[in-house]
Amino acid sequence: MNNDTICALATANGIGALGIIRVSGNEALSVVQKSFPAKNLEKQKSHTIHYGYFMDEEEAIDEVMLSIFLAPKSFTTENSVEIAFHGSPHIGKRILETLIKNGSRMAKAGEFTLRAFINGRIDLSQAEAIADVIASENEASRKVAINQLKGGITNEISVLRTDLLNFVSLIELELDFAEEDVEFADRSALSGLLDKIELKLNSLIESFQYGNAIKNGTAVAIIGKPNAGKSTLLNSLLKEERAIVSNIAGTTRDTIEEILHIKGHAFRLIDTAGLRETVDEIEAIGVKKAKEKVENANILVYLADAATEDFSEDIEMIQSLLREDLKLIICATKIDEVTPTKYETVEDIFRNAISHEFDFIKISAVENQNIQDLKNELSSYVEQLKSEENNVVITNQRHFEALKKSLDAAHKVKEAISFQISTELLAYELRNALEHLGEISGEVTNDEVLGNIFSKFCIGK
What we know:
The protein is an alpha/beta fold. The protein has 16 helices and twelve strands. A hairpin with an 8-residue loop joins strand 1 and strand 2. The two termini are 17 Å apart. Keywords: Coiled coil, Cytoplasm, GTP-binding, Hydrolase, Magnesium, Metal-binding, Nucleotide-binding, Potassium, tRNA processing.
């Protein structure tokens, strides 16, 4: 199938000023030439642009500009042509139909990038980074994706993998001379290398929490009793009337999710139903959903009405929702309605009752008081996850799993050395470690993994 000439729309569906169709393969120039009589494309230089009409036999479909990229100086390393046309979906459809009639076929999802990987232009982690660049929704995710595209993670582990490969070769050599009981690989030097590998792998694994926050956003559950001001706070943070605000308790029956960007980081704000015992079946479902959202949240923002006299129910709710890895922020709300003495007392009550570490902020969403303080707390949570020592951040679940397997394999190799087990078993554990490291860059992979990765790409990428 790699010998086929493929084509696809590279720009988004819909009406626009321009659209671009990509064509790639050994016969790309001849396929396009059949519909472009203005010039002999076979005689043109690489990286040149040509004007003319794209034809379907005798009919002009559109006035186009063709960009030519000759192998190997193209994204796929194959002969490639990009056709820029007026951005009508109908014109794009007609051009694709004509290209298929001329001898190409429609590309599969991610097939252009897959060819770039197969042809050695990029490794697998860089291919995945391309998808991350396209999907980036904030500055932080863009920067991390670009670093990966430049080969960030591959550069980090390639030197370690090369050193490990040298030891594997020496161990394999020992197996060839097993009867002579010789030792080519220095076990102490190998242990030193494994210490270095473990240190690097641990650093990369620890970066995943920050990377996941960058890529997928940080889940923030806004929780509290009915009428504590949850929907008002959501509207204030988003600066729009996203949630219905009412004095009637139980107005929010379902969860409302919105994205908020703070200092280049994405936060998934989840406004939930007020937590209380209720006989209303629909509201009860909303309360259940609210608790489920907290279980999957990174940050819990609990709102307590500062005018409340008894906070025992709030404290009980907070304690029932806490877990060790949950960031807790307690907000005393509606401070515009009470005296400073009152909301200062509120903080003391929560400090004395809750042992879990938390930040306390006094806010009025209606008056927009101290809302920026809350935003700063959210932002600092993500910033604290970032390691100053590691320039590479892991954002990909597949990379994370491969790194954990590599670390586990490195531990087993060290155990094998300390217990002085047979060279055959040591070689087996070393090959395992080498294989898991190779999974990240695609030096070791299988068709099922490749199919899963590239099926998530756009058709034209």
